[in-house]
Backbone:
């Protein structure tokens, strides 16, 4: 049966925990991972963003864990107690300490910000020169490789997040993809096939086909996260995932949790 290792609940920017689990059951999944956003940085821009978005799982994970235990009592599928942590190389010690303390079933790592700027926000970069965007792209892939090499995470989420931003799209190169694939090849961290945009933006998965092809060239295993935030997203995203698997022959691996 299929496993989805990346959905969100009201403990970050998703919907009620029980609703998400019930939707995963209706979608025919064998398990679902509640991987809410978390940032443990002490830099002021990241602290401010955390306050603005309410991403406080470092403070609330024990409450959520109790809620997950209650949901598990009558769930027909496995429910994983997970986390999606914003990664920045400067925060490695704090991330490691938090993950050691919290002892989640598994951890998802993601690079959302470079120099504390969220790379998913187009207006931040609309006045940037081409050279500045290329430099940011280089910094993004540096951070992604550092995430992989840190060995802090079981999963690396949406490894080509820049492609979601029209102001930064198209600057990644084949050289970037090979560098990341080589890092994955050496690491326990598994890249994620992320389905967060498959029902819009032209139906694109992350990583996109060129990047995914390089990962397959290196025999890098890939796991799955629908990145769903609403119950009504789970089933249609998994329908598209199954279609994609049939079209591409891609095999998705399960975590040993």
Residues:
């Amino acid at each position: 049966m299929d496993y989805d290792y990346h959905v969100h609940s009201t403990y970050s920017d998703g919907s009620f925990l029980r609703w998400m689990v019930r939707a995963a059951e209706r979608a025919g999944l064998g398990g679902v991972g509640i991987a809410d956003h978390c940032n443990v940085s002490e830099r002021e821009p990241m602290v401010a963003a955390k306050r603005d978005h309410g991403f406080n799982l470092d403070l609330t994970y024990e409450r959520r864990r109790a809620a997950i235990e209650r949901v598990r009592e009558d769930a027909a599928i496995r429910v994983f107690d997970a986390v999606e942590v914003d990664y920045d190389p400067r925060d490695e010690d704090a991330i490691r300490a938090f993950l050691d303390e919290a002892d989640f079933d598994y951890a998802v790592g993601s690079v959302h910000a470079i120099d504390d700027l969220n790379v998913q926000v187009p207006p931040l970069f609309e006045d940037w020169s081409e050279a500045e965007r290329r430099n940011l792209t280089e910094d993004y892939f540096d951070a992604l490789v550092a995430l992989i090499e840190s060995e802090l995470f079981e999963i690396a989420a949406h490894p080509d997040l820049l492609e979601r931003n029209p102001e930064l799209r198209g600057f990644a190169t084949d050289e970037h993809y090979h560098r990341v694939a080589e890092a994955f090849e050496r690491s326990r961290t598994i890249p994620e096939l992320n389905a967060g945009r498959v029902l819009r933006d032209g139906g694109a998965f992350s990583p996109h086909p060129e990047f995914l092809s390089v990962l397959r060239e290196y025999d890098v295993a890939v796991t799955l996260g629908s990145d769903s935030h609403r119950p009504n997203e789970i089933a249609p995203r998994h329908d598209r995932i199954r279609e994609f698997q049939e079209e591409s022959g891609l095999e998705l691996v399960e975590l040993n949790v």
